[in-house]
């Protein structure tokens, strides 16, 4: 069989374009409407996507004037979606900086059990002082410290998920023995950031533990991904940059002693689809016309750590900007945005227009055939194992993709036509079920 | 209309009797089976219960040899059950000692939205060193400190749930204004245990916030309940004790400046039902015959803080026991168990038999008519506003209650025959929707 594309549906309220909520078709209350998300999940499942995904940060982001704000907590929403779907993987973002390993490990194990092995965790370290101040921390933690904490978090979580061997339950009613205490392994962890003594109070889940996903593209982020991630979401503007990122991440993964095929690289793409190229461009323009520029300027000033009022709409970015090293927050996003503005000599207005669609992800406007071509090119030229599909408007953008792009990808033999017998999210991504670190290795049979 | 009973179904794997999993009918894997819980929820809904409830503690409790251990995390499981039911309230236990207010407030608000206003929170402070050591704390926190933290947790959580006024979303597409920043109220809380600066990132939910439930019966627990709780679960062995507890809690609630009718008192009852009294007794004996006494002795030694090997099966409890003041953990449970043993001069074996059924809650064996009589007596004699129904075996015990006791209660006019137009959990319990502490009071109209 031809190598198969992996598709993830990145769901975001009324769509990834920041002005999408203003379109006549959009429901401005969609962000708290389970039926809206259940419909999206079923559409993605109709398109035989591998998974769907929800971003998250534990704070209210900016002004609520700007766009639909506040959302259902991702693990909670995905649990409800687990019951509305049968096959699709369910990837929730959760922070290693503002959770405790015991609680979070329980929740992911519970979702994995409830969904029959379809849980995934997009591991984020959560930049920014706003989030920190919701958890009693005055200053945002330093970039390096966030990643050190994340690594220890992962090590503890993996111990917790392995704390029950797969066959720890014996269920011997006659003897009155339900479980085998010898197959329970308390982590007894005492580290820099965490102390976790006891075993998890959830048995080992169908996948062993959730699919581990990562999206940071900074140096620390890539090192973390090489060590732990099984799928990586990334923002890449050109196929050349994407190929370099892909090759680098696969090499780092091999250097970390892992099979490079066990990390799947999925760049984000914002497909703006029209039945003609002109129709696609007109749709893009319609969205751009709905951008409220005062919001865009404020967001950009926030990202670049500039005082309010610094940026002018019809000028280029200032020649002098704070260096990347000074940014403790979303460092790779900063680099991407500044790079894009400099490379294409964009005014602030133009930059806001480009970012409005996908916050730095590739926006591609065209016919279904052209979108499929772009996907195939990146996929076959060593730039991607699949894509993080980020429709500019929801639900219509996902429906259009599934109805018009998916059939082309299937006809080209690049995408499954049905889910088939594989059940778990890891199986869909072609990844092995992890062995339990505490279990005795199976004896080789002669 | 006659004053109406409130019924809560306390769900616990294969049942509240510790030996229930050993019966031939029981599924020893039920604790991780969503279908098992969905079936229970639908049965409770068929019985027009107000709510269902899941207990919890963030640690693996004792030996897994003893009984089904490890369970789905309650808020996760209840989210899945929200989609499997239409009317019934969903009450999850969560700890104020081992959660952060921001994360927990988000999750309850999300469940309340997803369920259409059916979320409840059983607030626990979580005793014991085992839980503490899963969260980097070496010694269990002192009883008084746990309650001080719980009170601050509640105050912050209530601010977070009110941080969006009900009409904060304006959704003005033409003007490009989604929300009204003036109706967002960041808590800006800096206290002893928590610092929470920003507003919640979930809009105000249908109920405003989840129904607040409490179950501690210590002095601190009762003071806390008087201040915050809208429903109280309690373990009472006799109608006299229950009346005293009921009168005391209502008086404390009035003294705290609240309407005493706004806290509903629900004692636990373990109904062992047979078509004749003899059949009920035989069922009770069958369960007791399945108790593994070595587990019961170990559990009792743990509760009483006695060294292993202290207790003898066929002797009374030792005359000298650690005083209640020395117990930092489940203080009211300690008092109840010692009181029961002393009052009825029970041997350790007899005490284990009594506790095996309901861990100190009232076990009542009889015909459906007798069970209904007991419920009516407590309800009409000032001992209860309703009951926490704790079937010894699940699902059969709940089915029997719904099929045989519920019709009697309905015939007597004590229990609704259908859910009717009220939608939220608070409406079912006859409680008002809380006003937002930040909103301007509505103007009186002449």
From TrEMBL, chains A, B:
The keyword Flavoprotein applies. It comes from the Bacteria. Keywords: Flavoprotein, FMN, Monooxygenase, Oxidoreductase. The keyword Flavoprotein applies. FMN binds at residues 56, 93, 143, 147, 217-218. Pfam families: Bac_luciferase. GO terms for molecular function: monooxygenase activity; oxidoreductase activity, acting on paired donors, with incorporation or reduction of molecular oxygen. Residues 28-383 form the Luciferase-like domain. Belongs to the NtaA/SnaA/DszA monooxygenase family. This is Monooxygenase. The gene is ssuD.
């Amino acid at each position: 069989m031809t190598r198969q594309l992996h598709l993830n549906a990145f769901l975001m309220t009324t769509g990834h374009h920041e002005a999408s909520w203003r379109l006549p078709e959009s429901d401005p209350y969609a962000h708290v409407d389970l039926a809206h998300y259940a419909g999206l999940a079923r559409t993605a499942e109709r398109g035989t996507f591998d998974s769907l995904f929800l971003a998250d940060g534990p704070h209210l982001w900016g002004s609520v004037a700007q766009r639909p704000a506040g959302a259902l907590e991702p693990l909670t929403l995905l649990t409800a979606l687990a019951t509305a779907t049968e096959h699709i993987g369910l990837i929730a973002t959760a922070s290693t900086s503002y959770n405790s390993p015991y609680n979070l490990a329980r929740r992911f194990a519970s979702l994995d059990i409830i969904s029959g092995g379809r849980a995934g965790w997009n591991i984020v370290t959560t930049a920014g002082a706003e989030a920190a101040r919701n958890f009693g921390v005055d200053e945002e933690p330093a970039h390096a410290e966030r990643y050190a904490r994340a690594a220890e978090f992962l090590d503890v979580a993996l111990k917790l998920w392995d704390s029950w061997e797969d066959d720890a339950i014996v269920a011997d009613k006659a003897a009155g023995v339900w479980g085998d205490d010898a197959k329970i392994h308390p982590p007894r962890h005492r580290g820099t950031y965490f102390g976790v003594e006891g075993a998890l109070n959830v048995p080992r889940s169908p996948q062993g533990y959730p699919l581990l996903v990562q999206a940071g593209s900074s140096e620390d982020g890539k090192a973390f991904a090489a060590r732990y991630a099984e799928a990586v979401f990334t923002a890449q503007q050109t196929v050349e940059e994407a190929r370099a990122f892909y090759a680098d991440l696969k090499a780092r993964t091999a250097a970390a002693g892992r099979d490079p095929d066990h990390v799947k690289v999925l760049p984000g793409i914002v497909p703006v689809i029209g039945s003609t190229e002109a129709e696609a461009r007109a749709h893009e323009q319609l969205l751009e016309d709905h951008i409220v520029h005062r919001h865009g300027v404020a967001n950009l000033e926030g990202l670049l750590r500039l005082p309010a009022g610094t940026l002018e709409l019809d000028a280029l970015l200032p020649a002098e900007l704070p260096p990347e090293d000074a940014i403790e927050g979303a460092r790779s996003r900063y680099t991407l945005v500044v790079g894009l503005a400099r490379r294409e000599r964009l005014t602030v207005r133009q930059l806001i227009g480009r970012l409005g669609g996908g916050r730095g992800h590739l926006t591609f406007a065209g016919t279904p055939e052209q979108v499929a071509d772009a996907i195939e090119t990146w996929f076959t030229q060593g730039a991607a194992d699949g894509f993080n599909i980020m429709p500019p408007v929801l639900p219509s953008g996902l429906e259009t993709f599934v109805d018009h792009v998916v059939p082309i990808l299937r006809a080209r033999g690049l995408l499954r036509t049905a889910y088939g017998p594989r059940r778990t999210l890891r199986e869909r991504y072609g990844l092995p079920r992890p062995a339990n670190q505490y279990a005795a290795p199976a004896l080789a049979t002669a």
